[in-house]
Amino acid sequence: MSARPPVLVDIKFNPEGVVRVLKTAFADRGSINLADPANRARDLGDVEYALLWKPDADLFQRAPNLKAIFSGGAGVDHIIGMAGLPEIPIVRFVDRSLTTRMSEWVVMQCLMHLRAQYAHDISQRQRQWAKLDAPEAAEVTVGVMGLGILGQDAVAKLKVMGFDVIGWSRSRKHIDGVETFDASELDSFLARTDILVGLLPLTAETTGFYDGGLFKKLRRDGALGRSVFINAGRGKSQVEADIVSAIREGTLGGASLDVFETEPLAADNPLWGLENVFITPHDAAVSEENALFRHVEAQIARFERGEPLQFVVDRAAGY
Questions:
Q1: pLDDT of the residue at 317
Q2: Residue 79: phi, psi to the nearest 5?
Q3: Does 295 qualify as catalytic in the annotation?
Q4: Residue of 120, 282, 294, 302 marked active site
């Protein structure tokens, strides 16, 4: 039996973790880690599978015979649009752990805004015993934008916590017990929403989507008093200058952001200092390397058995 060509790995995060897991991954064929200087000039002509996160710009020229591409994360905007991208399947990373971590973050942020955690933190630092009267979750409507695997799990967990949850996606999704809206009903969806949760993929349509005009359409007479924006989708979907203005003007009562237009977030960015804004460094749901490599192994095995790949990207939609 002829040797199987190794899997190409070009991942621009946690290099130590990648090296550690590659010691036991792809045991039947081995791997080529482009982060290793020894592989910089290596011939990639025989490579059939590539696991990528923000790959080198010339990758597809160097590896012209790929059969499938695997994304190192849930998003694929770092691959779509690259020069020389071949017409082969692109597979997203879908993993129970990644999904669960994202939902944990979303629920935590919704609860912190519901229970005014920012104000409590200030009182604690000032050693003040300042009780606050918070609404119950059932009095607050959380609108989740993006109803893929991550969004649907977040919806389910938020419902368990008692929130009134509604959902929006470009084309209507049907979720038991949840009112859903499609692209033509955006304004109706926003008018009902106290806490807006962004889990949209980055496409041409969603670039700069969360802007001042959208924030003004959110509900302002609900139990929270002012609406809140939470984003863990893609940083380039939000207009950060508009978030800053909306917070300062009172259009938004707060925000929780895990993603940003430019990362890392610059030290002089005004978002850092705004009241009732929680910032996390794009770690709401970090891809766990063991799970990622097991996922790719399983998909390659499916492909070579003649079974369809799972989680294949619709290139026209961009996700």
A1: 85
A2: -110, -45
A3: no
A4: 282
Question: Annotated catalytic, 219?
Answer: no
Q: Of these residues, 234, 294, 302, 305, which one is catalytic? A: 234
Q: What is the mean pLDDT of the chain?
A: 95
Helix (H) or strand (E) holding 167: strand 164-168
Give CB contacts under 8 A, 24+ apart, made by 110-117: 110/140, 110/142, 110/158, 110/161, 110/163, 110/195, 110/197, 110/230, 111/137, 111/161, 112/256, 112/278, 113/195, 113/224, 113/228, 113/230, 113/253, 113/254, 113/256, 113/276, 114/140, 114/195, 114/224
Instruction: Encode pLDDT of 288-300 as tens digits.
Output: 888 999 999 999 9
pTM: 0.88
β-partners of residue 143 are 166, 196
- Which residue reads 């509604």 in tokens? 166
Q: For residue 176, what is the enclosing H or E element? A: none
Cis bond upstream, residue 64 (ω within 30): no
Query: Is-contact 165 194, C-beta < 8 A?
Result: no
CA distances from 123 to 102, 110, 153 (A): 29, 20, 34
